[in-house]
Amino acid sequence: MSCCPCLPTKGTKLRGIDDEIRVQELGGGNMSKPKVYIVFYSMYGHVRALAQEMKKGVEEAGGECLLYQVAETLSDEVLKKMSAPPKDTDIPVVDVHTLPDADGILFGTPTRFGAMCAQMKAMWDATGGLWQGGKLVGKPAGIFFSTATQAGGQETTALTALTQFTHHGMIFVPIGYTLGEVQFDMSEIHGGSAYGAGTFAGADGSRMPSEKELALAKHQGKYFTNVTKAIKAGRQST
Ligand SMILES: Cc1cc2nc3c(=O)[nH]c(=O)nc-3n(C[C@H](O)[C@H](O)[C@H](O)COP(=O)(O)O)c2cc1C
User: Fold this and answer.
1) Phi-psi region of 74 (alpha: psi -120 to 50; beta: other; left: phi over 0)
2) Where are the domains of the chain?
3) Cα atoms in the Cβ-side hemisphere of radius 13 Å centred on 44
4) Superfamily of domain 35-237 in the CATH hierarchy
5) What is the arithmetic mean of pLDDT over 91-101?
């Protein structure tokens, strides 16, 4: 019995989209795999670790997942002063013109002063043509993030990203509390919230995503793909 009537007891199945059923209802059984892009920036690898785990979730839900990083905007000299390790060259840099090819897009960013990083914002600032052509209208969008500290701005990072999604007419897909066993757990600190998966890097960046944070990242990939699938199937059925 939980102490508060609005909180579920352990093991309670939380309300959410029962995606498989919903997709069947929408006639999505025969539809092509939803294509989900994960577009991220990561200076020290925390957001990248979440992105890689999220990709597993997308694939587990039957989606095709393409991982992209956004272009660097800082000079080598500045990056060196920030002790940034070399970029993972296995992950291609996103070309914004390909964003319309995705059925849904998940965006990952480290927090900078409570909002998304400038590299990610620079990518958005290059989408004027897409905006003009309405190329991202109606596309599901999700967000995940990393802060140094617990009160460092995970939720403000998500909330301030909504202006980009909104101006493009994208459909923001939060995860709510659909992974209650992790999200309600108070036995250890962990990042992430109803807005999306998240990790705490620590003030010196030495803390890597915990098991719970990775579990939420994988869940977000899965949940987002199922919502994207339902939206795609709904469109195909009309
Ligand atoms: C210029 C700058 C601003 C930052 N602002 C914040 C902040 O507002 N809140 C916070 O908790 N961490 C802040 N950080 C720490 C980063 O969020 C942290 O390095 C990042 O989450 C690590 O993720 P990554 O390894 O994927 O780059 C800031 C770091 C830099 C370099």
Assistant:
1) beta
2) 35-237
3) 21
4) Flavodoxin domain (3.40.50.360)
5) 98
Q: Which atom belonging to ligand 1 lies closest to the Cα atom of 42?
A: 26
Give the number of the atom of ligand 1 that is nearest the alpha carbon of residue 44.
25
Task: Tell me the whole-structure pTM to 2 decimals.
Answer: 0.91
**pLDDT tens for each residue of 152-210:** 999 999 999 999 999 999 999 999 999 999 999 999 999 999 999 999 999 999 999 99
What is the end-to-end Cα distance of the chain in Å, rounded?
Answer: 44
In this predicted model, what pLDDT tens digit does every residue of 102-139 receive, in sequence order? Answer: 999 999 999 999 999 999 999 999 999 999 999 999 99
For 174-216, the DSSP string reads --TTTTHHHHT--SS----BTTB-EEE--TTS-PPPPHHHHHH
Closest residue by CA, ligand 1 atom 15:
148
Pocket of ligand 1 (CB under 6 A): 42-47, 110-114, 146-149, 152-153, 201, 205
Say if residue 207 is exposed, middle or buried (CB neighbours under 10 Å; 0-12, 13-18, 19+): middle
Ligand 1 center–CA 203 separation, angstroms: 8
